[in-house]
Amino acid sequence: MPKKYLFSLLCLNLCITASWGLSTSLSRSDYSSTDSSELSVPFKLDNEKQETAPVIEHALDVTERANTIQKMLGRPGNSTSPNCINCTEPEPDLRYMQCNSQNDYLEDGLSNELNSHHSPLGTILRMPLQTPSIIKPACIRISMESRFNANSRLFRECSADGKQKTAFRPCISKNYFALVNNSFNVVSSCMKEFIAPGASEETQNLDVRAVFALINVESGFHLNATSTTGAGGIGQFTNPAIQDVNINELRDIRISLEGNPNRMCGEMSLNFLDSLEPIRTGLKNSCDRTSIENGNPVKNMIYTFAYLSGIKRDMDRMIFSDKNYKNKFALSEYDLNKVKRALMIWSHNAGPAGTWTPVKSLLNTAYRGKKVTNPEKFINEVQQYMQKFPASANKSSSRRKETSKYFPAITSTLKTIEENVGGGSCVN
Amino acid sequence: MRKLIMFIASVLLVNSANAFQDLQTKSMAATVQSKILRTSNTQDRLLLLSQYKDFLFQRLNSIELPAFEDLRYGDPLLEEYRSLTEYEGYISLIDLKDISSKECYRNKIRLQNSAGKTTVLPSEARDALKILESLCS
Hints:
The complex is a heterodimer of chains A (about 425) and B (about 140). Chain A has about 425 residues and is mainly alpha-helical.
C-alpha cells in the first residue's frame, strides 16, 4: 500500500513537473520563439560569442555611407525630403516585384481598398510616397526585402471567413509597399507623442526609429508574418500583449489621438479604433492581427506603439522616476533616453519582468552606493545580468541566450540597413 | 524504496524552489496584508503599499552577494536574490490611483501579463497578486 501510494505520488509529481516544463516551453514563446529560423530571433542561438550591445544612438548626424542596395532601390537619393511641404517632388524610383500566383494573394484586397473612396486604408494607400515621414521609405523597403526571402512560408493568408492558411512572402508590389510605408508614416507621426509625451522632436523621432528597428526584426514589415508560437502581424503580437493593450492602453490612445492637432490622427482613431472592433485574442481570431480587412497594418502598428508605450511608462515609473532608483542615475537626458529605449526594446522579447529583474539586480548590487554614468557600459552590463538574473519565464539556457542577445541583434540589423541607405540614417 | 522516496523528495524540492525564502520579506508581506485588510481608508492602504515598496528596496540593498564574476547561474544565493528582485518588480508595478474594481482589474492584467507567461504564473507574481488582492478586497 505505501509503495502504491508513493508510486501515485511520483506519477502526480512527474505530471506536475512535465506540465510545468511544457507550459514553460510554451509560454516562453510568448514574446519570441527559441527557434532561430522563426520570426523573432534574427540571430543564431548557439553562437557562444557574447555580442556586446551597441546603443541605438544619435542617427541624425551620421555621415553618408556606401549605398550597396542601390540596385534594388533604383536611383540614388530616393529617400523622402523632410522639407517637402507640398509634396511636389517626384516619387522615389523604387523597383517593385512582379507578382505571381503564389504571392499575389494580397493584391485583390489592395486594389479594392485603393478603388474605394470610403475606405480609410484606401486613403492611406493613395497618399504619395514622398510625403514627409520620420523613417525613410528606403529603409522600410530594405526591411521588407531582406528580413525574409521570397520563398519563406512564415506567412498566413486569411480567407473571407477568417480562416488562415500558410503562404509565401507577399509580393512587394507598388500598392503593398505604399500601404505599409504610408501606414507606418501616419501611425508613427500620430503615436510619437504617445510613446514619448512632451519629449523633444529629436527624442520622439529616435523612439520611432527604435520601433522601426524592432518591427524590422519581428516581421520585416509584412502585415501577415506569423510565428508558430501564435504571434502575428507587424508587431508580432501575442495574446497577453493584445489583452494588455485592450484593457490598459486603448482608452488613452483615443484621447491622445483625438487631442492631436493633426486632424489625420483624430481620423485614424475614428476609423481604426472607434469604427472597428479591437483586436481579439485567441488562435481563431488570428486574422484580427494580420488581415487588411481588419484595418491592418494600421491597427497592428497602433497596438505596437501602444504596447511599447505602456512598457516604457511602467519602466519609467518603477525605475527612472521612482524615488529610490532615480538617484542611481547620473546621466544627461539624452543618455537616459538611450537607456530607456534599450529597455523598451528588450522588454518586447524578454517581457517586462524579464527586463526589470536583471536591471534592478544590477542597480542594487553593482551600483549599490554608485551611480550609472555611462549608458553604453550600463546596457552591456544589463546584457550580462540577463544571463545570471533572468526572470522566471526566461530561466532556460536558450531563453537566457536569446533575451540577452535581442537588443544587440536589433541594433546590429538596424546598423546594416542604415549603412545601405542614403544619408546613413533611417531618420529623415 | 529509499531511492524512490529521495527521488520524490528531490522532485518536490524542485517544484517548490521557485520562490524566494527570505524570512524578513515573507514576514513583512504577511504583516502588510494583515494591516491592509484591517484598514478601510484607501489612502492608508496605499501608504502601506508605499512603505512595503520601500522595505523591499532596502532589503535588496542590504543583502550581500559575492562578486558578479564569482556567481554561477544556479547558485542558491543568486537564485534567492533573483527571485526577490523579480517579486519586488511586481510589487512596484502595482499602481492604484484609487481602489475601484476597474483599477484593480487593470493592475491585475498588467501584473499577470508582465510575467511573460500565459499558462503558469511565476510564484513571485502570485505572491504579488496576494498583496494586490488584499488592497482591492
